[in-house]
Amino acid sequence: MATALQKPTTRRSTRQRNADAGTAAANDESDQDVHSTSGQESEIDELIDSDENNSDDEDESFRLDNTPTRQKSSKGRASSFKVPETPMSAEQDLDDTDDIDTLYGQILGSRLPTEKLVEEWIDKYKGPEKMEAVEDLVNLIIRSCGTKEKIDAKAIEDDELIVDALQNLEDKVSANRYTEYPIASKLRKYKSLKADLIDFWQKLIEECQYDIIYDGLLVETLQVWLTTMSSSTFRPFRHTATVIALNVISSLALIAERAVQEKAIANRQLGAERRKNNNNRASERQKMLEDKSKALANKEKRLNGYLKHFIDSIFVHRCRDVEAVIRMECIKHLGDWMEQYTSYFLDNQYLRYLGWLLNDKSTSRFKVRLVEMALHETDQTTRVQAIGLCVLLAESNVIDASDNMNLGSLIFSDQPKIRSSIAPLANMIFENDYLSPVMSEAKSVAATLPPTTTSTGRTRGVAQGREIDSIAIKFKCLVKMLMDYGEATQKVKKPNILMGSSEVESVDNQMELDASNNIAQVDQAPIGPQFENICSHKESRIALAVGSLFKEISTLQEWKAMVDFLLKDYTTSTSDLSNTAEDSLNEYYQLTDEEDQVFIEIAVAVISLFIDQSVQKSKTKKKNTHDEDTKNQISRHIALALPRLISKYAADGKKITHILVLPQLINLSAYTDLRMSKAYEQLLEDTKKMFMRHTTSTVHLNAALVIKRLTSYESMLSVAEPVLIELRDELSLLLHNTFSDKDMQAQMLSEEALATIAITLSRIQQFIKVMDVTEILEDQNSEAVTNLSLILQVLERGKSGNIQESETILSSAAILFQFLAWKCHQVLTDNDIGGSRVDLSRLIVVRDSVIHTLTDLCLSDSALQVQENVRKMSFQLLVDLYWLFSNEQFRHQKSSDDISLMLRCTPNLQKTATEYVDSELNKWEETYAIEAGQDEDDEQDELSDNGRQHESAHVKIQYERLTPVAALAKACMLGIFDVNHAVTIVSRYRNLGIEVDEVIKALVSSVKDGLNIASTSKLPSSILTMYMDSLKESFERHTKLQDAKLDKTLQLARLLAGSIKAADSDPFHKTSPDLLTDDLHIPGITYCTSRASSYSKNGDQDSRAASLKFFKILTTFSSLLTRARDVAKIHRHLDSVLEQYELSPETSDKDWDAYKAYISSIDTVLQKKGLRYDASNKNNMDSAQQPLGSVDQNRANEFERLQPNALDQSEEDDEPLQRGRKNSKKPANDQNTRGTKRKAEIANKQTAKQIRLSDMLEKS
To answer: Which helix (H) or strand (E) holds 64?
Structure first.
């Protein structure tokens, strides 16, 4: 940086002298302009002031406004601030809403056309405020980098302070972990900012081309700041400054090209004139042309000097930047310059930069970086491109084997585009590294073996050896590759940018490293087996990988061969050869137990893909006979193979779980087509045995799903019904035998008894999920006790807090909930058919018992000793039950004693539930920061088996923590709880990680739909009150911290404001403007001022200053205001509370900056209507003392009579005002006049309004 500042520093005195010289001349011009307009302004102000002071009816605080007056007053306020002593003492935390009137705010908000904005800046630069204009320009560059700071005048005037000022900015922003900046942001509000910013700079240079760029101040100031910022290690500074500098160069190049062309024309004319004079004395025209030629030559020389300085200090370094986006910007503009200013840039000096991009002596220079980008890049588009490039490099054998393995492991990524892009590489590795070597080796072994002989004595095989089973080898190699990828996935480390690798150093030594880059993140795919949902074959990691490889690897198209391969057994010899010879070849076919399990998953995934493809095609196009035949063919083949598959894998719970997926995929019509009713019945029997024999819940669930599907096929009901009845009887007997010899009231149960109960309840839990078996639970034992009562007793044992009984407690709770859900379904079905199968009195008793027990487990005083997982799940089920019985159709379903089946949650219970969730969130917050730090440390090490177990446990803990939060959010979303209880969740936005944030976003997105319902409802007011309470709680939580920052509260405010805007997108239903004022702005102002007053009286000035920053939060909602009366109401309330709490905003006090920004933002509504607020009006001060409820709703009509012209110019008037003049239209311009009659009507109305105004003035 220091070297970049040496040259500008030597010209510092010249720049300052040029600035001072231009100020005096500009002062005279500005004085004349101000004097010419002051007469008009004074007349208007005098008229309006007399109207407002003398009228007894009008106390509204508005007056006519025009742009010159407003700008003049704003300049006056700005000039009253003191210049700070140090370069950075004037830094202020800014937000987009804080700098509305700055250049950045104008460009971001598109409030003025670019031409108008440039014109205003030039007027300011040519006036007495030249250095202030330059300061605005520099702060535009700083603000465009995304910082929330600004540079003061001292740093602008003294180049020696630039480096320190920028370094301070970098330190502050880097400490906030800042990663995104406007020109690279994908946020909607920044969508057009880059284009608007470029347009501004291009138009600015273009408008300044005749004089300002040669004054020795503007261009040299830009050179100093842009050069310094473009050499920063902080990417936002470097990227933004480079973009601006490149576009400034483009504009200067266009001006220089025009100067060259004009000089060429002048020289031609001068030559012609000299020949015309024939060595006689030069004419006046010749002298004029000579002067013009010299002036243009000097102009060209100065412009070329500017270009050379920008090129040497910025372009030369940035075209080799470590960031591709910056390099791309440089080369793109270089091509533009060659077209724009050919005589200067189409030269070897600049052409060489294009050549340097096309070759490199070190062919592997960027290989390491490309592999890292493919493995760890966070931007998906960039990562996909990097993977595609790595695939091409791998085809040329540039990528190492270890890197190939790491890249291939991306086939298990959780992102579909990543899996698809890496599939070609996986296919290449499969063919070259797995299949070809093994196939060659197997052929060599087979060649040494004699051919096999058939029973007739004939030789089968090749002349010199044995035929090999090539498809079996392919299957084994495919399994081996996926298993290797699974292991490699666990070993991929994050790149260490600071590591001492020579290859990395060779890259970093040749390119500038961005110090702000975060270490790339490992792909967050669910890679461990603990994450697999093996009951859902479509979501397992193997299924996802197969789906991506399906079109790349032809072996995956062999579905029939896969089924046949599963039926084969290579463990025994089938020929007369010795076992040793046979085993030597079988080693290439036979799968290990683990490989066999993986292959079953592959086969199921492939069959699922074939069937899904035929189903999708039949849905999107006309029925395809070929696709239907394929599905029928698959179904018939599997129907024939299923008995043998079940027999082979029946004893292995993990494998049979996947085998039981096959009956859920095939067409059951295959059994009727093949007349296999016996096989159908046998399949049911086998599935029932699997259900009753195995002890794992995954087998129970898949078996239950198969039984449900088989018993639902109408053509086979006669075969299925006896088996289903038999199964229900067995389950009822199983329940009876499980509890017959056990005392559920006992304090302790033996481990054997708990294991038996757990397995039995698991079977019932999985079965009742998919089928209505409530009659089993209603069966009674010999002691006239129902099975339901016994399960309820198991649930009540959860109060003891015995950790060994947790699983049984959770299973019993799930069974009871499913029982009540099926009963509710029966009630609704009875209503449709006009019958009644359900005893409502008994159902209500069971419902109340279950709800009472769940309430005791999660919300009572004794719940503290309940196991955490049991307590959280009990709370979730409690919320689900209240939702279940809140159905309006149950309102008239009553028991014999006139008790309704419909149930509402009491306010006390809602309050207790909210307090419970709040306490859980408080505990989560206490451990969140510690765990985040631990995770950061753990990520630096390779994941071991213990590490993966720890990660799995962490995910489980996170899920359990989120359970009560999601339950409370759901209760508020569904109307089970009052919406005000959502405050405890919403106020923690951005505090507890992305999972909680997603819950909050879903909650806000759901409740926002209640904002624009009928005005008679209290729900919109409740929602807005909840919004404000959440903001208050978030604000207090963050201002109490030692490092108090409002970033998270501001993000919450933007989320809530965005939800209101989304709700108002419906043109027929809008949020009430009165509610926005009364439930958001008014309470927020009261809260802010009362809090500030309290701290001020206690002498705590720091806390007072922090309290006043709440106005920054309110500014976020200013854009929602549309009516002038609402702004007036807010102003009156502000005046009232400021007087009540004895607070006085001071212009020079920075603590009130947020307040001033808020006032400016709400006054924007008035500016759009051509109005402004006058706080000095006495009537205003009197009306401020009135209660808010007594605000005169007819003020708008009086306002119309007093100021007809202003109202006619407004684009959006108040609703009462619109009703008061239904037939009135805006005065038409000359361009859109619709006839003489229309003009006459408008003139008559304007005359009538002026007459009313005159009458009122005479009366006053």
So the answer is: strand 62-64
Residue 713 has pLDDT above 70, yes or no: yes
For the CA atoms of 325, 331, 336, 337, the dihedral, rounded to the nearest 10 degrees, stands at 130
Q: How far apart are CA 291 and CA 1023, in angstroms?
A: 74
CA R_g for the chain: 40
CA distance 189 to 528: 40
Find the angle CA(1226)-CA(1232)-CA(1235) to the nearest 5 degrees. Answer: 90
pLDDT beyond 60 at 1193: no
The whole-chain average pLDDT of the chain stands at: 77
Instruction: Please give the single-letter amino acid code of residue 495.
Output: P
Beta bridge partners of 459: 453
Tokens representing 809? 């407690």
Task: Please give the distance of CA 1111 from its chain centroid, rounded to a whole number.
Answer: 26
251-283 confidence digits (pLDDT tens): 999 999 998 999 888 888 888 888 877 766 667
Domain residues of the chain, as ranges? 250-359, 360-449+468-515+524-534+541-557, 668-896, 904-929+960-1068
- Degrees, nearest 5: CA angle 469-470-473: 95
Burial class (CB in 10 A: 0-12, 13-18, 19+), 891: exposed
394-399 contacts, C-beta under 8 A, 24 or more apart: 394/425, 394/428, 394/429, 395/428, 398/363, 398/364, 398/367, 399/367, 399/371
- DSSP conformation class of 63: E
d(CA 600, CA 662) in angstroms, rounded, equals 11
The whole-model pTM stands at: 0.68
- Kindly give the residue spans of alpha helices, DSSP state H, lying in 55-102: 67-79
Report whether 1174 contacts 64 (CB < 8 A).
no
Cβ–Cβ < 8 Å for 662, 705: no
What pLDDT, in 10s, does the model give residues 609-652?
998 876 665 555 555 566 678 888 999 999 999 999 999 999 99
Tokens of 352: 């060489």
Residue 497 to residue 505: CA distance in whole angstroms = 10
Alpha helices in 208-347 (DSSP H): 218-230, 235-277, 284-310, 316-318, 324-340, 342-345
Neighbour-count burial of 1211, counting CB atoms closer than 10 A to its CB (0-12 exposed, 13-18 middle, 19+ buried): exposed
End-to-end CA distance of the chain: 69
Mean pLDDT to the nearest integer, 126-154? 83
How many CB atoms are closer than 10 A to CB 1218?
12
Q: How many residues does the chain have?
A: 1260
What residues form DSSP beta bridges with 1173?
62
d(CA 401, CA 437): 15
Distances (CA, A) of 1218 to 65, 1208, 1210, 1213, 1224: 22, 11, 11, 6, 9
**Residue 740 half-sphere exposure, CB side, CA atoms within 13 Å?**
10
Q: 1054-1057 contacts: CB < 8 A, separation 24 or more?
A: 1054/1116, 1055/989, 1055/1000, 1055/1001, 1055/1004, 1056/986, 1056/1004, 1056/1027, 1056/1030, 1056/1031, 1056/1117, 1057/1116, 1057/1117, 1057/1119, 1057/1120
Q: 27 pLDDT exceeds 60? A: no
For residue 1146 the two structure tokens come to 């001071």
Q: Which of 688, 677, 671 is nearest to 637 (CA)?
A: 671
Right CATH for 668-896 from 1.10.287, 3.90.320, 1.25.40, 2.60.40: 1.25.40
